User: Fold this.
Amino acid sequence: MLLLILVTTVSAQLPAEQNNKAGFRKSAYGGIIMHTQGLGLNLYFSKFKTADTKTLFSFDIVSMKHSKEVKSFGVIDENAKGFVYGKLNSLYIIRFGYGRKKILHEKLREQAVEISYVWMAGPSIGMAKPVYLEVFNIVGEIIQVERYDPEKHNLSNIFGRGPASRGVSEMKFYPGAFLKLAVTFEYSTYRSGIKAIEVGGVLDAYPQKIPIMTNTKNNFLYPSLYINLLIGKKYF
Assistant:
């Protein structure tokens, strides 16, 4: 009876963290990215390196807007699709990351929150897709889809935005690199589940300027702040 009481007492004093994470060595999770210049999706794969440190591998794909983008509407038909006047290319970014996740505050109870610090770095590939618009022909009666040309197209002959699929085959790729720093708040109540919010910043850098807009300054550095809503699962 004394032995049973002793074992029960010691077991009751063990933190929930030890019960929750016993045996789990890997995890996979991902979610939606909302950042200051667009939206995106991402995936994380992690593996324990030490008791409080994980090795991370990540994949992100996000849209990236120019700070001068303003949506316009055709003067002929207000029901036409909105477009960004002066926009040459739509920019999408793919990131392949490697990094670490360090637990700063352990989750000692089921209803508690685990706080971690994250850093990631790796290649960043910018993909510039040409913008296509619906424009009036010379006669002004037939609408046709054309790649935006600032020398030919203006607010008087642009009808609206063209199909999103046009220009995919004409994409230009810009290799670069990125650095991500963030804090993650994990609050799942299930032993094998992951629910988390990640808040941080990313800097994408390229050796040359990416032409997004005409008649304005384009950049080779793209800083952004983001919130990442994550769900996933832990594995043995």
